[in-house]
Amino acid sequence: MKVIKELSACGGRLIKLSHDSASTKTNMNVNVYLPKQYYAQEYPRNKRIPTIVYLSGLTCTPDNASEKAFWQFQADKYGFAMVFPDTSPRGESVANDPEGSWDFGQGAGFYVNATQQPYAQHYQMYDYVHKELPQTLDAYFNKDGVAKLDFLDKVAITGHSMGGYGAICGYLKGYAGKRYKSCSAFAPIVNPSKVAWGQKAFKGYLGNERAQWQEYDPCALIKNVQRTGDDKILIHVGDADPFLEEHLKPELLLEAVKCTSWENHVQVKKVHGFDHSYYFVSTFVPEHAEFHAHNLGLI
Q1: In the chain, fewer beta carbons within 10 Å around the N or the C end?
Q2: pTM to 2 decimals?
């Protein structure tokens, strides 16, 4: 890990990092917010600070949510750290959309492990986000016998748009092993196999075999995951979101959970007047923070 910059924010510090990834075979950037509790002398040495992973949407970098979602206030309030990964591998050697569009290629990795060339070499974003990055952060921050941050066990996940899709997908795929304690999403793409954004990404990264698509589609995954305990998924979406009807379609997830253990445990809150922007996201971050803090045992 290389520290690019450290910035004071709220009561803690935002650490901008880069590292060489074995999954993507590229250099990857990631932002980590360490809350005020991390720096408090009186914080119990045997108590690890839990983590929330925030996955960003199309065209974003780790900086978008770090600057505009205002998670830092909530992290200080409840005592959790934030991890903001990048949305794709980047660099001159990394294949991009030959058409130069913004919804595929660099900045639009869709958090899957690509199987198709020329993308398979670098676009291993599922393994990067859910396997490699937590281990890398744990090794970096918890070295020298001091383990103050929990990147491996007490972890929640959330995200926006493509990242909201990535959060729900990662949560469900890791559910049997309880990789994440809770999941929420802002304006997620819930059924990528049936909408243009997802179909383009899945065809490019995974090929034409739709059976492979189902392995990354929340509406397919949730039918085969047996819910346990009090687990639920929280979703917000604005009714003025320009992508609502064509790409997001949250009603498809509610349809998918009917007659499953998740029925009545996926909460979709459609909020009046809000669009797809960070004005929308930042407004409802406090509710999502409280939701995760409860599931992480901080409330």
Answers
A1: C
A2: 0.97
